[in-house]
Amino acid sequence: MFPGVVKVGVILFIWDSVHAVLGTKLGCSRLPAPHLWFQREDRCYRVRSEAKRQYVPGRDWCKTQCSDYATPNFQEENDWILEKFKEHYPDTPPKLWIGCNNTLGQVECLGDTAEKYRNWQGKREPTTSNTCVYMNRIDGSWGTASSCGSPGKWTMCEAPAQPPISPLKVRCNVVAIPSGKCPQPNITFSGMTPMQCCLTCAKQCNCRSFSLTPGTQDCNINPDKINDPNPELIEQTCEYYEHEIQK
Q: Looking at the predicted structure, is the pLDDT value of residue 106 above 50?
């Protein structure tokens, strides 16, 4: 039995007398590549600088990072996003997609409040349907592309900040699965005990289950659960777990 692991029936409980409850301070540590995120109050932001993208592929990439397009919901946030945008692109006047579009004759933005903050160039809201919204790097004003498939613009993602995972609140359940079938992992870590794999999964926002490869210490992080509709499975023998974070 590994230190710090107790199996009771089919349940793997995590305990460690060395760890204290980590408190409720919010941060970006549970997001992919946390060192690439900037925190502002209770939100986390990340600029993707590798390439410009059309609206939908850019948003899809944010979703792989457990986030969505950065979307200003008040003037201070708009100014802050503009400042970070300029830091990354100081020498050119590119445009940045934000989480607003007009698909039904009216612009809707992620995180809209009753006040519906807008920062239109010229102070007039465009009325053209099937358009997506960008921020100008020059002054932070907003405009609309002729279509959401127009030439690519830069991407900034936004996600809620979350408290760190306390080892005292994680529980991982061993689940019976069909023999010789395991979910297709999206990442594998080597040299992990079951306890370490359980905590790693709990800290990955896109981990829905994990499995251990017999005869190795490979920890497989899975985006699917075995009982999901049409999970992606591979031919492999493994010990399969699902985790929960207790309140």
A: yes
Residues of the chain with CATH 3.50.4: 5-23+164-245
Domain 5-23+164-245 has CATH 3.50.4: yes
Interior angle at CA 30, CA 25 and CA 31, nearest 5: 125
Structure confidence at residue 168 (pLDDT): 59
Read off the tokens for 104: 């039904």
Report how far residue 20's alpha carbon sits from residue 165's, in angstroms, rounded to the nearest whole number.
Answer: 11
Of the candidates 131, 109, 113, the one whose C-alpha atom is nearest the C-alpha of residue 54 is: 131
Please list, in sequence order, all residues whose beta carbon lies within 8 angstroms of the beta carbon of residue 166, skipping any fewer than 6 positions away: 19, 21, 22
Summarize pLDDT for 188-229 with one digit per residue, the tens.
999 888 888 888 888 777 888 999 988 888 999 998 888 888
Specify the CATH superfamily of domain 34-160: Mannose-Binding Protein A, subunit A (3.10.100.10)
Rounded to two decimals, what is the model's pTM?
0.72
Residue 195 to residue 72: CA distance in whole angstroms = 40
Range(s) for CATH 3.10.100.10 in the chain?
34-160
- DSSP secondary-structure letter at 89? -
- The predicted pLDDT at position 110 comes to 92
Look at 102 and 93; give whichever has higher pLDDT: 102
Rounded Cα–Cα distance for residues 95 and 87 (Å): 13
Contact residues for 171 (Cβ-Cβ < 8 A; gap 6+): 11, 12, 13, 14, 243, 244, 245, 246
Cβ proximity of 163 and 131 under 8 Å: no
